[in-house]
Write a structure and sequence with these properties.
Structural class: alpha+beta
Number of helices: 11
Distance between the termini: 101 Å
Strand content: 15-25%
Oligomer: single chain
Mean pLDDT: 79
């Protein structure tokens, strides 16, 4: 023999590799006058072949054929998975040519368009599904090859003529040299209708808010007129009547003096009523900013003006300290506490010293302030009525007032996000309460 053929060691990792390589090597080896030999297991535990040069080439070709076969098998499996995803998807899916002809669609697409079968959709130009056929051309011409759109809303026309809103997401790709589109389409009619309804409501709200602001400006002007233009004549009536009694009282008979005193009393009541109305009006329109406020501070400030009257009537206001802190507007809380304490002192039984007890209790992130008295009580059927403006259960001569104090309490508590109430019966004593959110330190 003239020289020995070249030798190459090839790794054989599977039985299939061994069988195919041996078959090819034998054929080529014989044809080329080469030889082959098979070694046993190597130290690494793998089969190896010692073959001639042509056999090595044949082995490489066979290996590449096997790889290509695996790739084809993978592509087929991937295609099958995609077809299952396409056909079974709950979202409408379709594939069209660039000119719009439908190449494929799933059952969800058929249902969305209102057709009976896929055959009715396949081959149709997709432009027919648009409420405005030019919408499709505007969509596909708005991007370059290989791009697409995401969540673009357009209107479709179903088979029965109904218009629906859909959201389209699609991309362009090329297959076998032909451009086509893959699209996912969702029916968003309900969402679109709700959005349009919300916009209508917002527009209505904005209009009503503008009207409310105009009314508030008119109320501000009216309040200014009341506080200045209307109260000025009242003060004049009261002042001149008092001068009349002081300077010329001895010249008036008993009836004249009584008339002058009634004018003074009526003008005072009218002035007080106007002040209460203004306070109620401001409370309804005031800007409220909640912050931690001490109930003790509010109660102490409200007790001060009442101390003289309570002492004169041999009464007592007992404050059980400490009182909690609440989330409130300080001025509004002051109005609430002032009116509650004033009512507790005022509505005592004739001849009985007023006894008022103030305490607070905290529970579930809320604080309830109690104002308890030994007064005339409130029948259960009047528990709601007494919190309305100008609702009086007793005559003004017996218990003076404007009938708006508890209405201020109700309005103030509502503005602070709280509640008010009363526990009382026809017998002596009432327990009024106002409930507000606890301050942060209390909630912790």
């Amino acid at each position: 023999m003239q020289g020995s053929p070249s030798r190459t060691w090839l790794p054989i990792r599977t039985r299939f590799d061994l069988a195919s390589t041996l078959a090819v090597a034998v054929l080529l080896g014989v044809a080329a006058g080469c030889y082959l030999s098979v070694a046993g297991l190597t130290g690494g535990g793998r089969w190896t072949l010692l073959i001639g040069g042509l056999a090595v080439v044949a082995s490489i070709v066979a290996s590449r054929m096997l790889i290509r076969r695996e790739i084809v098998r993978g592509r087929r499996a991937s295609g099958a998975r995609y077809r299952r995803l396409f056909d079974r998807n709950l979202a409408a899916m379709a594939r069209t040519r660039r000119d719009g002809v439908v190449l494929a669609c799933n059952a969800a697409m058929v249902r969305l368009l209102g057709y009976g079968s896929r055959e009715e959709v396949l081959g149709v130009n997709a432009s027919q599904f648009y409420a405005d056929p030019e919408d499709r051309e505007r969509l596909v011409s708005g991007f370059g090859p290989g791009a697409g759109v995401v969540d673009r809303e357009v209107r479709f026309r179903r088979k029965n003529g109904d218009l629906i809103w859909v959201s389209m997401t699609f991309i362009e790709h090329e297959e076998d040299g032909e451009a086509s589109f893959e699209a996912v389409i969702l029916d968003v009619t309900d969402r679109k209708t709700a959005h349009e309804r919300i916009e209508e409501l917002n527009a209505t709200l904005a209009r009503q808010l503008a009207e409310l602001n105009a009314v508030n400006k008119e109320l501000d002007a009216f309040s200014y007129s009341i506080s200045h233009d209307l109260r000025a004549p009242l003060r004049a009536m009261q002042g001149f009547s008092e001068v009349l009694l002081e300077e010329y009282g001895d010249r008036l008979d008993a009836d004249g003096q009584e008339c002058a005193r009634r004018i003074v009393a009526a003008s005072r009541r009218m002035d007080l009523l106007i002040q209460d109305l203004l306070a109620y009006s401001r409370l309804s329109r005031a800007e409220i900013v909640l912050a931690p406020v001490s109930l003790e501070t509010a109660v102490d400030e409200a007790v001060g003006p009442l101390e003289r009257e309570v002492k004169e009537r041999d009464g007592e206001i007992l404050v059980e300290r400490p009182l909690a802190r609440v989330m409130a507007h300080r001025a509004v809380l002051g109005q609430i506490v002032t009116n509650l304490l004033a009512n507790a002192v005022k509505f005592a039984e004739p001849g009985r010293p007023p006894r008022v007890r103030v305490r607070s209790e905290s529970r579930d992130g809320r604080v309830r302030l109690w104002v308890e008295d030994n007064g005339i009580g409130v029948a259960p059927e009047h528990h709601e009525r007494i919190f309305r403006a100008f609702e009086r259960l007793h005559g003004a001569q017996q218990y003076p007032g404007t009938g708006i104090g508890l209405a201020i309490v109700q309005k103030g508590a509502t503005r602070l996000g709280g509640r008010v109430g009363v526990e009382s019966g026809p017998g002596p004593g009432s327990r009024f309460w106002v409930e507000l959110d606890a301050a942060e330190v209390e909630r912790a």
